[in-house]
Structures are given as structure tokens and as C-alpha cells.
Design a protein that fits this description.
Oligomer: single chain
Distance between the termini: 63 Å
Shape: globular
Strand order of the largest sheet: 10-9-8-11-12-14-13
Largest sheet: 7 strands, mixed
Number of strands: 14
Length: 295
């Protein structure tokens, strides 16, 4: 089936309203893209950040009358000039297959693989996680997820209790469970992340409870994994301390390499000892021990 894209670059406050109007006039989907190469590294907890200059891209059937769509859009949002909309034809091809072809099995460490459902496991004797790319963050393609997965492969939590805090797709929780953890729990602020994690746990026949942060309860565990961002990692330090046993292991990622030193000093002041540090593509992963005698 052939498609067209109608897109325009707008200021941040207009992105969400324009997306809603696009859907009202029949768009199949609407996506946002950074119009000025300004990556967002530190969104506030519980927010969905949008770039200051955002390219809003709507997908329509190729038979759609683009001029009529643009007229409807500008009638509802007169602040948008008609001449700034761009209409682009898309090649008629199997987009689902093209999307699937982008994703291949990925290896982390020596024995851990993430395998999309449409692929065969390269090593049937390895620890294989069946995981498809989806809406929730964390399917192994981002360096911070890769760093945490590699750490888990090198430090399998055999017979330990584990929390995946900020579980995204549940990939770290699944890896911990498959690598021998006795018990694993996951939590996130996003309901979509909880749903994705539950679905992925079912696909992998893994008994892992996932719940929203507001409903999450746990006694102290042996290991806590948090792949979030540097700002929230600081805010959550008291909670992480409460959730860890004395001498428990804390694994943090989601921070830039240039933020590592500050976060290390911050956590040392909270009663943690640094036990490891790794980097990949300007991102960092830190591991700490929760000092038994710390206040």
C-alpha cells in the first residue's frame, strides 16, 4: 500500500495540539522528531518531553487529498502557515517487513542474547530473551541498556532477590530471572511500560510481578537495577537505600559519562561504595555496594 507524509516544524506548545488535529482529520499515525538536533537527556519525572522545535509527521493513505487535509488543519490552527507544510510520497513497499529487518539478535557479554520473535536464536544453549521492539524504552539497542545487560551477564544474580526500578520493557528483570535470580520484581511510572513488561514476561514464561511505582512495595533485596537518568537517580537515592539490604548491590545507568564523577561522589555521601564503572558511546554504568554500617 502506498502512503504520503504530511509534516511541519512547530514550536513545542503546538506539537501535541497539532498531533490531535492530525488524528481528527484521518491520519493513520503521528510521530514527533527533533527538528534541530537538540537531544533531551534530563526530562522531569513523570513527563513526556518534546523538543523546542519539533517536526510533526503524519501518515496518510496515498489517495488522501493533501491540500484538503492542510486546509482543515489551518482552519483549526490558523497560526500554522499553509506554505510550511510539506507533503512527501513514501515508497510502496512492505513497511512491516522493512521494520522487522532492522532488528537482529543481539549478544551481551558471553552468554546473553535478545532475540526478536521472528528470528531464530543464534545459540540455543545460551540465555535467550524473546523480546520485540515496542513502545516502551529498553530493548537492548540503547547503550545504557546494553551496559546493564552486559553487567548482568558478567555478574549473574544466582539465587538473589532483584528489583528492576524503571523497568521499561522489563528487559533487565527478564535477564536477571533467566540468569538465575531467585526472585525479581519490576516497577515503573508509565502504565505502558508495565503492560509491555508483563507481556514480555509472559512471552518468556517468566513469573515476574510488575507494578506502578505508586503501588510498588518490597522488602529489601540483594540487587537493585535502575536504568533511568542522572537527575532521577539522585532523587531516588533514599528509596534505593531503603530497598537494598546491607551490602546489597546497586547498578545505575542512564547517565552520560560526563555525569559519572558527580553521581559517584553523591552516592558515596549516601553510604555507598563504588565497585565498578563501564562506558559505551558516551554513556556510563556504575555499580555500588550498600555499606552495611552506613547510616
Amino acid at each position: 500500500m502506498a502512503w504520503i507524509q504530511i509534516n511541519i516544524t512547530v514550536n513545542e506548545p503546538l506539537a501535541e495540539p497539532l498531533s490531535d488535529v492530525f488524528m481528527e482529520v484521518g491520519a493513520v499515525s503521528v510521530t514527533f522528531a527533533d527538528a534541530q538536533d537538540n537531544p533531551i537527556y534530563e526530562p522531569e519525572l513523570g513527563t513526556t518531553p518534546i523538543w523546542q522545535q519539533t517536526r510533526v509527521i503524519a501518515l496518510f493513505d496515498a489517495e488522501t487529498d493533501a491540500k484538503a487535509i492542510i486546509s482543515q488543519l489551518t482552519a483549526q490552527m490558523p497560526e500554522l502557515p499553509e506554505n510550511e507544510f510539506r507533503v512527501e510520497p513514501l515508497e510502496d513497499k512492505d513497511w512491516v517487513r522493512a521494520w522487522m529487518d532492522q532488528f537482529k539478535p543481539m549478544q551481551f557479554g558471553n552468554n546473553l542474547w535478545i532475540v526478536p520473535s521472528w528470528c531464530d536464536a543464534p545459540d540455543a544453549n545460551a540465555v535467550n530473551l524473546l523480546l520485540d521492539p515496542g513502545m516502551a524504552f529498553g530493548t537492548g539497542t540503547h547503550p545504557t541498556t546494553a551496559l546493564c545487560l552486559t553487567w548482568l551477564d558478567q555478574n549473574p544474580p544466582i539465587d538473589l532477590s532483584v528489583i528492576d526500578y524503571g523497568c521499561g520493557s522489563g528487559v533487565l528483570a527478564l535477564a536477571a530471572k533467566k540468569l538465575g535470580a531467585q526472585s525479581v520484581q519490576g516497577t515503573d511510572i508509565d502504565p505502558q511500560a508495565i503492560l509491555a513488561s508483563q507481556q514480555n514476561a509472559g512471552r518468556n514464561q517468566a513469573d515476574i510481578p510488575f507494578s506502578l511505582v505508586k503501588d510498588f512495595q518490597s522488602s529489601p533485596v540483594d540487587c537493585l537495577l535502575a536504568n533511568i537518568l542522572a537527575g532521577p537517580l539522585k532523587e531516588l537515592a533514599p528509596e534505593f537505600k531503603r530497598l537494598l539490604k546491607p551490602n546489597g548491590t546497586l547498578v545505575l545507568s542512564g547517565l552520560l559519562e560526563q555525569q559519572a564523577d558527580e553521581l559517584i561522589e553523591f552516592y558515596r555521601a549516601q553510604g555507598f561504595s563504588l565497585t565498578g564503572q563501564n562506558t559505551l558511546d558516551d554513556w556510563a554504568q556504575l555499580s555500588f555496594s550498600h555499606d552495611a554500617n552506613a547510616a
